[in-house]
Design goal:
Elements lengths: L2 H11 L3 E3 L6 H5 L12 E4 L3 H14 L3 E4 L15 E4 L6 E4 L4 E5 L4 H9 L3 E2 L10 H7 L6 H4 L6 E7 L5 E5 L4 H7 L8 E8 L1 E2 L2 E10 L3 H14 L4 E9 L14 E9 L3 H14 L4 E2 L2 E4 H6 L10 E9 L4 H11 L8 E6 L21 E9 L5 H15 L17 H8 L3 H11 L14 H4 L1
Parallel strand pairs: 2-4, 3-4
Antiparallel strand pairs: 1-2, 5-6, 6-10, 7-11, 8-9, 8-10, 12-14, 12-15, 12-16, 13-14, 13-18, 17-19, 18-19
Helix pairs in contact: 1-3, 8-11, 11-12
Bound molecules: flavin-adenine dinucleotide.
Length: 462
């Protein structure tokens, strides 16, 4: 059967939309969040349910098509799309079911975090995720997932109870602590290597109103604030999260006009406690280096989650670099300042996400995500709407990364890097890599799922 015949037959058995280059919807559907990515797949299969995912996997396999699997399409390296491939797009599988008594949440693989936050908030619950609510649940979870609730409740994967999956041979399995535990271990940090997750079952926590928002300081104060912060965040109550940022002030409310576009540093707080408790915890920094501006108020958790979404609409140019850090030395702080002063565009930024607390209390080999002994996950992102600036933002991110990498722990969060090759992936999984490669060989021996931060099946290479 020719490929075209296979596609025609596929269309007849597939319930969702199948888009080929001649279809009017194809152009918009091939795009991912990062506007720097410009790839043309052979077809896009917009799955309506698990049956569609199975049909798509079997068709791709039988016709020799490579597959790219897409959740929210937010991966920086554009791993949700590939030239000449079949994109298995899960976006239509979009449902959230909250079980308030059990505090569990069942999430379809096409959901964004805003879908989950919206559904859980009605029950006074939240699932730990990231800091931008437009990101996909699937990719963020499979990589680890770090954000405002990490210190208190762990990574997103530390709150994952089970997944439904379609494997490379088109079979359907459940993976949990009880069923296929090796697969469940692997998907908690192993990315999209092992199969297509069609739904996630999470544990949720009572989180409703939080005291949260940014404090900003002039760059002249940044070294002092960073030195204070490095001590503070290693002993602060786990109810208090704060990620550090080098950034430019967004040109809009609630930021005062005189600060718009000024390069500053900031900490975005999220306290799961009362305003009184939060103010007591934050009193030392307010009296030591009073912020030039702060917007720290009680707010519904979904409001915090969506606070920065408007700064980062889909289609901007992005270049990412990441690293893990155990400490923040005076020398490293100097490098941060040097490169913060060079931020090339106002949307470019550097964040240090604290992943100590509960994240550190999970063992290095308890899940595929191995860096349980670090304090921060750093991300440096060069961002701008104009493709003409792609070189400028890339060079800045690389320069910043090169200056800080020698101070790092070795690996990086897989969701904060571009496609950086096998060595970087091995450095990130450390002692867990061989076990992952063996599980890959068991569930995907032909490396059918290879458009990802790829782990080679053990028999292939290691
Ligand atoms: C603006 C922005 C802010 C971010 N902030 C955070 C943050 O605060 N915390 C954080 O942890 N991360 C953050 N990230 C990184 C984020 O975790 C990754 O971009 C992640 O890939 C997003 O998931 P996605 O489903 O949108 O990705 P996609 O691009 O759809 O997929 C990413 C990878 O996962 C695979 N995949 C996707 N869905 C499935 C599935 N159902 N089954 C199997 N494999 C699948 C894909 O094949 C691909 O390899 C942020 C990203 C952006 C762009």
């Amino acid at each position: 059967m020719s490929l075209q015949e296979a596609v025609t037959e596929f269309r007849s058995r597939f319930r969702g939309a199948v888009l080929e280059p001649h279809d009017p919807e194809y152009e918009a559907a091939r795009k991912v969040f990062n506007g720097m990515i410009d790839r043309k797949p052979r077809l896009i299969a917009q799955c309506s349910d698990v049956a569609d995912v199975i049909t798509a996997v079997r068709t791709a396999k039988a016709s020799g098509l490579q597959v790219a699997v897409r959740g929210g399409g937010h991966h920086a390296a554009g791993l949700g799309v590939c030239d000449d491939a079949m994109v298995i797009d899960l976006a239509p599988i979009r449902y959230v079911r909250v079980e308030p008594a059990a505090r569990t949440v069942l999430v379809g693989a096409g959901c964004k975090w805003s879908d989950v936050d919206h559904a859980t908030h009605a029950f006074g619950l939240a699932v730990p995720s990231g800091v931008i609510s437009s990101t996909g649940v699937a990719g963020l979870t499979l990589g680890g997932g770090m954000g405002h609730l990490s210190r208190k409740h762990g990574l997103t994967i530390d709150n994952l109870l089970s997944v439904d999956m379609v494997l490379a041979d088109g079979s359907f399995v459940v993976a949990s602590a009880e069923e296929n535990p090796d697969l469940f271990w692997a998907v908690r940090g192993g990315g999209g290597n092992f199969g297509i997750v069609t739904s996630f079952l999470f544990e949720a926590h009572p989180v409703s109103t939080v005291c949260a928002g940014p404090m900003l300081w002039n760059l002249e104060d940044a070294a002092d604030v960073m030195k204070w912060y490095r001590e503070f965040i290693t002993q602060a109550p786990e109810e208090m999260n704060g990620f550090f940022a080098m950034m430019s002030v967004p040109p809009g409310p609630p930021f005062p006009e005189e600060l718009h576009l000024r390069k500053m540093c900031g900490i975005v707080w999220c306290c799961q406690g009362s305003m009184e408790q939060a103010n007591t915890i934050l009193e030392p920094i307010r009296s030591y280096r009073p912020p030039a501006f702060e917007f720290f108020v009680p707010m519904p958790f979904p409001m915090l989650q969506g606070m920065f979404d408007p700064i980062y609409p889909t289609g901007l140019q992005w270049y990412w670099k990441g690293d893990f850090f155990r400490e923040l030395s005076d020398d490293a702080i100097e490098k941060h300042l040097e490169h913060a002063r060079l931020m090339p565009t106002w949307q470019s930024t550097m964040h240090l996400y604290p992943i100590n607390g509960k994240v550190n209390r999970v063992g290095e080999s308890d899940t595929a995500f191995s860096y349980r002994d670090v304090v921060w996950s750093e991300v440096i992102v060069g961002v701008d709407p104009d493709p003409a600036n792609s070189g400028k933002i890339t060079d800045w991110a690389k320069g910043y990364y090169n200056a800080l990498h020698p101070f790092g722990a070795g690996g990086a969060y897989l969701n904060f890097m571009m496609e950086e090759g096998d060595e970087r992936i091995r450095a990130t999984y450390r002692g867990n890599y061989d076990r992952l490669a063996a599980i890959k060989a068991k569930y995907d021996p032909g490396n059918f799922f290879c458009v990802n931060q790829n782990i080679k099946p053990a028999a292939f290479g290691s």
